[in-house]
Design goal:
Elements: H1 2-6, E1 48-49, H2 50-73, H3 77-94, E2 100-105, H4 108-111, E3 127-131, H5 137-154, H6 159-178, H7 202-216, H8 219-229, H9 249-259, H10 267-275, H11 303-327, H12 332-353, H13 377-380, H14 391-394, H15 424-427, H16 431-449
Antiparallel strand pairs: 1-2, 2-3
Helix pairs in contact: 2-3, 2-5, 2-16, 3-5, 5-6, 5-7, 6-7, 7-8, 7-9, 9-10, 10-11, 11-12, 11-16, 12-16
Length: 452
């Protein structure tokens, strides 16, 4: 959770554990006369992109819902709850009216001109919103999923707060479904530079509906999701090969398999994990790409995030599928296949932590030969009162401040990795890059603690 603490914006709490960070972005939203202090900076710079922030937080909440006892056993539960709440407190601010949601603060045009500490920012930081006239179906739905999943997390420990989150989730979902359907990048055009995504939004709508159903058990939400999932054209029952901030279809498939008794909803997520295996299945015309040393290689830009997300879903799925096949006495062959999903998840997490060609960790501050030059402005700056400028991006030396817990982008398809912040595809860090990793690690530890 230390990486997320390093990414905090706003007024930091007295128990902040990252010593080189302090308050920043306190005037965010001033251009629209709204308080938007808080939330997280996305990656290297100081833009707050609410679309990937929402997805990241939903993944963290999902991990807590499934692996709460593991977080407790590791002494990390309070930290992950604080991490989730840092987002949801901010999203409450971003949602001042039912049909208004602020989706971004600052933009690449402004942020790229500044290389320094977040505490010293003095440039204009514009805030961008969606509303009924300038809608953003995917963003509103993704935010609804965040608030709904977090409401489940806090339901027992803080019921009044959970009720507030539920109210925002319902309103955001209504906003997403009632306003004109379109991608948020058409309303917040600077988002397209980094997190515009595919422009599709059916996966976000189904994702949000299922999280609201999981929270409320109101059947209409499940029916909304089912209508989207079951469509003959552009439905969500077909094979998908990644799970990411841009494509939640695999997550929808896993939720459907949990929330419905209909066996047809179990096959798509099973296909996802089966296709992700290093050995090609005769069921598919395509095969997942792996590096020679065993990394599932889905995208050359930050491949580790995709491998970690896949690991999370397949490790999550394994105990349920194993139980289902045992109690229904279905073939031993399928039990063996489900066991391979477990092995896939463990293999990918082990690769990230050092079981790879060079024996190096890809997590800053952890393991052997960890990255020392993540592309990250704040940790690249020396401590004040020393000045910080763009020259610190180019210098070939470790960052003065250790960005503990950050998962970097990762190696290329040949398993080669250069620890240089100037190689953005390998050294970049991001909120969504860490979320699936955090949840997958909790899942792997859960398997080991429970001898599964």
């Amino acid at each position: 959770m230390l990486f997320y603490e390093a990414q905090r914006s706003g007024t930091l709490p007295s128990d902040q554990r990252v010593p080189w960070r302090s308050d920043s972005g306190l005037s965010d939203g001033a251009d629209n006369n709204i308080d938007l202090a808080g939330g997280y900076y996305d990656g290297a710079g100081y833009i707050k992109y609410n679309f990937p922030m929402a997805f990241s937080t939903t993944l963290l909440s999902w991990g807590v819902i499934r692996y709460k006892r593991t977080y407790e056993a590791l002494g990390q539960l309070d930290y992950v709850l604080d991490t989730i709440k840092w987002t949801t407190d901010y999203f409450i601010k971003c949602h001042p009216e039912p049909d208004v949601f602020y989706g971004q603060v600052s933009d690449n045009a402004a942020d790229s001109q500044y290389f320094g500490r977040p505490e010293d920012m003095n440039y204009q930081r514009r805030s961008y919103k969606i509303d009924f006239s300038n809608s953003g179906t995917d963003l509103a739905a993704e935010a609804a999923a965040t608030m709904a999943s977090a409401a489940i997390v806090f339901r027992s420990s803080n019921p009044s707060y959970a009720a507030t989150l539920q109210q925002h989730a319902v309103e955001l979902y209504d906003f997403a479904t009632n306003a004109p359907r379109r991608s948020y990048k058409l309303s917040i055009q600077p988002a397209a530079q980094a997190y515009g995504g595919s422009g599709k939004y059916n996966d976000e709508l189904a994702w949000a509906a299922l999280w609201l159903y999981k929270l409320t058990r109101t059947r209409s939400y499940f029916n909304d999701a089912k209508l989207i999932v079951d469509r003959r054209r552009n439905g969500l029952l077909n094979l998908v090969t990644e799970f990411s901030w841009s494509d939640k279809a695999a997550g929808v498939q896993l939720l459907m398999s949990e929330l419905s008794a209909n066996s047809k909803y179990r096959s798509p997520i099973n296909w996802f994990c089966l296709h992700s295996q290093p050995v090609r299945s005769n069921l598919f015309q395509t095969q997942s790409q792996y590096t020679n040393r065993g990394l599932l290689f889905i995208n050359e830009w930050g491949p580790l995030r995709y491998a970690a997300n896949t690991a999370f879903l397949c490790v999550y799925r394994f105990p349920y599928e194993l139980w289902l096949k045992l109690v229904t006495k279905i073939s031993y062959l399928f039990i063996t296949i489900a066991t391979e999903w477990r092995a896939l998840g463990i293999k990918q997490i082990n690769y990230l932590l050092g079981d790879n060609r060079k024996g190096q960790s890809f997590v800053v501050g952890f393991g052997d030969q960890p990255p020392t030059q993540p592309l990250h402005k704040g940790s690249s700056c020396p401590l004040p009162p020393a000045e910080c400028g763009r020259e610190f991006r180019e210098v070939n030396s470790p960052n003065p401040n250790v960005l503990y817990g950050a998962l970097v982008g990762g190696p290329n398809e040949m398993d080669d990795f250069s620890d240089l912040r100037t190689l953005e595809d390998q050294s970049s860090v991001s909120l969504d890059g860490n979320a699936g990793f955090q949840a997958a690690v909790a899942g792997v530890i859960h398997l080991k603690l429970n001898n599964l």
